[in-house]
Each structure stands twice: as structure tokens, then as C-alpha cells.
């Protein structure tokens, strides 16, 4: 099976999140508005390099999946997102990722 652009984007996102400096990660996650600003910046950069809404949502989905599995929520908004993520099926999580992209766009 050929390595697709989608898979390459997902791999880059996963590596970036896993390798992020713990201090920077804590700064981003400590406040929901800071998290939204960070995500907005990444969405904007993604659009500038030609990523479409679906690719952006896939990247957001990868980040959300990582956060749900590896990070404790730092505020009530993150707690709600984590709970929704955990109870959602694959399709619902994908739709939630689209909504996160829309929220910060």
C-alpha cells in the first residue's frame, strides 16, 4: 500500500506532539484560550501549505487522540472534550475534530 499524504501528515503531527517540550506543552494546555490560540495558529499554517479541511480535521483528530490517552485535562473545557472523545465512536470523534477546526478557524 502506498504511503499517502494523509498518512504522512498524521505521522508528522504525531511526532510533533510526542516530541514537544514538556514546558511548552504545559503552557499550551494550562489555559483553554491558549490551547485554542495554539490550534488556530497550526490550522492557519496548515492552510498556508495547502491542507484542506479534511486534512486539518485528521491532524486535529490525531492530536485529540494523543491528548485523551496521554494528558490529564488542565481545565473544565479540556475535561469536557476528553469525556466527549472517550464516549464517541470513530465517526463522532472525526466530527468533533472538524468542529474543533471550525472553532479556531
TrEMBL record:
Pfam families membership: DUF3243 (PF11588)
Segments for region (Disordered): 1-20
InterPro entries given in the database record: DUF3243, YmfJ/YflH_sf
Annotated protein name in UniProt: DUF3243 domain-containing protein
Originating species: Sutcliffiella horikoshii
Amino acid at each position: 500500500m502506498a504511503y499517502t499524504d494523509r498518512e504522512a501528515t498524521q505521522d508528522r503531527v504525531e511526532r510533533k506532539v510526542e516530541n514537544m517540550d514538556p514546558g511548552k506543552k504545559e503552557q499550551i494546555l494550562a489555559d483553554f484560550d491558549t490551547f485554542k490560540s495554539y490550534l488556530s495558529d497550526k490550522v492557519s499554517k496548515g492552510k498556508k501549505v495547502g491542507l484542506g479541511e479534511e486534512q486539518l480535521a485528521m491532524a486535529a483528530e490525531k492530536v485529540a487522540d494523543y491528548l485523551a490517552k496521554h494528558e490529564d485535562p488542565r481545565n473544565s473545557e479540556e475535561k469536557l472534550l476528553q469525556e466527549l472523545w472517550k464516549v464517541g465512536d470513530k465517526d463522532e470523534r472525526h466530527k468533533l475534530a472538524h468542529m474543533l477546526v471550525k472553532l479556531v478557524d
